[in-house]
Design a protein that fits this description.
The protein has eight helices and 13 strands. The chain is α+β, with helices and mostly antiparallel strands. The strands form two sheets. Strands 4, 5, 6, 7, 8, 9, 10, 11, 12 and 13 form a ten-stranded mixed beta sheet that branches.
Amino acid sequence: MNGLLTIGEFSRITHLSVKTLRRYHESGLLEPATVDDYSGYRYYATDQVATAQIISRFRSMQMPEREVRAIVHTPDPDARARLISEHLTRLERQLDDTRSAVTALRRLLDPAPPTIDVRRVLTQQCSVAAISEVVDASDVLGWYSDAMAEIDAAVAHTTGPPGGLYDNELFTEGRGQMTVFVPTAHAPSAGRIRPMTLPPVELAVTVHHGPHDDIDVTYGALGVYVETNGLAIAGPVREVYAVGPRDTDNSALWRTDIGWPVFFASPTTT
């Protein structure tokens, strides 16, 4: 047919296989310009080449076909831009997750196993402004950010770095009590914030240096220490963010104290 391309010609031009073009036709993602009623042959217009290449590009970015279809068939440029932006955000999140996994794997696969310094301490009683809720493990980061922002907006003067308490069920069951806090002499009762007194507790403490991409490796090493030294676990894990994102954008300088509540003899008071 004049001005039209056979499916083979269109395939060579767009680098989409004939099988893929047939599937795109069946799904409605990219329909031929016309189909011969007698032979069933598919024919494509030259102005469909750019559309086919756009589809190919999005599919190479792992965008689901239903979203590609929505973009291709949406005449509103703002709606198209929003769909593309949402997918790019997901890709960035996946890239961050991949980088985190690579960081942890490199540390775990290092010929020298991870070593940590552990201190046994007895904390002092501390007054804090805190928010506590039962949280799903998948929501921890978002919940922490929202809760800490609420505390920061309400508490002007602090007496130490912020921290968090994480119940064992959060790790073992995927859902448990979580508390974030900042030490302060004057804790308000506002919104979700409540004054709380953290009692003295015996901790096996180690320091995680750098970003939290591989903090689970440090947790694992501390857990091995607790088990091999015959220490009994006695309460929620405590994290203290001695240096964190609120202090510096350089994640290499971050320092997180991880404290595992334990029973032991002759603790050192700090």
